[in-house]
Prior knowledge:
By secondary structure, chain A is of the alpha/beta class. In chain A, 38% of the residues lie in helices and 17% in strands.
Amino acid sequence: xxxxxxxYRHNAVLLYSHDGFGLGHLKRNVTIxxxxxxxxxxSKALLITGHSSLPGSPLPYGIDFIKLPSIIKAKTGVWQxxxxxxxxxxxxxxxxxxxxxxxxxxVPSIFLVDYTPTGVxxxxxxxxxxxxxxxxxxxxxxxxxxxxxxxxxxxxxxxxEGNYExxxxxxxxxxxxxxxxxxxxAFHYGLTDDLxxxxxxxxxxxxxxxxxxxxxxxxxxxxxxxxxxxxxAGGGYDAYPMMRLAIKALGILMRNLSFEAIFITGPxxxxxxxxxxxxxxxxLPIRILRSVEGTLNYMSAANLIxxxxxxxxxxDAVRLQKSVIVIPREGxxxxxxxxxxxxxxxxxxxxxxxxxxxxxxxxAESMLKNLTQPQTPPIFLAMNxxxxxxxxxxxxxxxxxQLQPLSKI
Amino acid sequence: xxxxxxxxxxNNENPTFKATGSRLRIAIFTHDTFGLxxxxxxxxxxxxxxERAPQTAMLLVTGSPVVHTLSSLPPHADFVKIPTLVKTGxxxxxxxxxxxxxxxxxxxxERLIQEAVLSFQPDVFLxxxxxxxxxxxxxxxxxxxxxxxxxxxxxxxxxxxxxxxVCTEWTRQxxxxxxxxxxxxxxxxxxxxxxxxxxxxxxPPHIASKVEYCGYVTEQSVRRRPASEIKKELGIKGKFxxxxxxxxxxxxxxxxxxxxxxxxxxxxxxxxxxxxxMMGPGDLNKLxxxxxxxxxxxxxxxxxxxxxxxxxxxxxVSMCGYNMAxxxxxxxxxxxxxxxxxxxxxxxKGNQAGLExxxxxxxxxxxxAGFVDLLEPEALKPKTLAxxxxxxxxxxxxxxxxxxxxxxxxxxxxxxxxxxxxx
Lengths: 409, 423
């Protein structure tokens, strides 16, 4: 399969994403890895993750993954083993040693780190140190979504964790998956002065998987009603309050409007919560699913999407130009609230209060409005992020390629 | 325990994870496989360990791409996945899954295993079936573990392969020396009546003394759903038989023959065709077409609690992989076994790709002991199979099982715990 002519055979991308809450970071890296090996034949990608379920699998030839023992974020900046009853220190030792060996023997030409410059517990530092001291060091890239947390919170943590120093010392480039005019990520999070030259705004990034036309997917899903409401929140680990609220609101909406609804709870929602939702949805035209292949198709079928404010789900919904109601997570991170606010000001979505503060009536009212008077979005968000990020990766491949001996394989 | 350094990993606030001095740690390695058998066996062991010693920390290390699709691990257990070497069933995939020269992937795998296991510092390191892993990837970690207190255990399937093949391979690869130097215990997941390991594999006395027979290892503590519930779910009224090829990656020939055979059976006998989650989409679609329009045949790709279905059925037609054989023995289900002789995953080439003896040897041994009815590979024709099924459905003597068969999992875990505490 590989011949000496395979153009990108020396190019390897190593991708790291931490495994705290949710699948978003990993999903973004999987999307980038898939597009990279597709666009650059012969190149390969190795994902490092602590998540046990991999979105978007089966992976195509050219991509594999390493799963580390899992950790979980207890609260901002505090991590602990997800299931292994061992000390943090020992778990960190296993993880950091595995990452180091992966980097040593996989020999990446690009190391793309999502979100955490030094990794959880600083587990990347040794690896970054090692890669940097190579005779031909790889291009080391930090990938950041548009909004991380409240700027003062992030800046403080980054200061304590030595992230600015790490970026200065180890990183060649910072991809920001957003647009400066919409949210000045670099400014808000202190990536200024000497760090600013590393920054590249890629535009908003969403998956490029195709989705079926609305009519076709509606037929496949046997949707009978004109109005289809889709309620989804990515992995779904903290989606229960939002979904419970949505069921109540739909119960109210029933009196005014005929509709169907599909809930995708996500693989990370606790089983007892999912079962509870099933009970609450009894006698309502609601289907509750755990996880589905091709969430995008479900989005395409819907005319209203109710979700939390996570980056990936929101970008997919905006890409499909759907009416969207966002019920952002209250905390610990302010990320979703900030993003919801921003996109709502631009008229792209309806942002409501977080689940604890929102009444079912308010939600029902917003649903009714969105379904009966759908607004065409006033602007289009630049959604080119995947293409831009991957073509930039390609540029780094090109510059690395000249350094590699052609006879290596 | 180096508690002082733990403080540097700020805010270790979870009290349950603090006092870990007395907890056991057990690491398990299973090589990547085309099928599900090895991983399922490891999961059974982990589940049972978790019941017997709930505080134990367990880490499963594997390159299998399917580990995350299996039912969840017990509490206090986690897994590590290293780059995959075997075929994954995904389109265009080839081993390795990454376009890197094989020696480089192997080196990467070896180092990752080494780091994961050595940093975990297990009390016991259990290796499934292959003393050095599939490609000698365990040599480094075994050598390093010898310098520590970790006890090492090899868990051998009842039958590894034909005795002369095993002896030749083990001599060629230097396995006897590995067993002598690096393993404390050899647990056989089988019974002496089926294979006397010491004789068959020509073990010298100092290795033979490490061998313990545990019996067949299979899931034991599952709650069975009643037959009525299963039948209702399947939409089947009367008796039904199951046909299955385990994971299903190479089950197509058997399932196809079975579907042809059912044409000779009385119509009141229904069938449940379990294709298995590993069957390729091409094979699966062909089977679906064959089943289409037949109201006494139900096709399913996967069922979660297979034992419930087995208990509800009147008999099973299957290949003779380890797990299937164990289930049949433990549940005493009347069975016709049709072992495969081709090499793992090479069902399209049949025996052209070389012969593999494991299943047929197991099937013959089990048939000789009276546990199952064996259909030799060359006899696998629709009409013959139909005749055998009819015979199977007649009232018959109870299937024989010896007491030892039921205790496999229990004994295995007992040995592991004993070793862990001896440290």
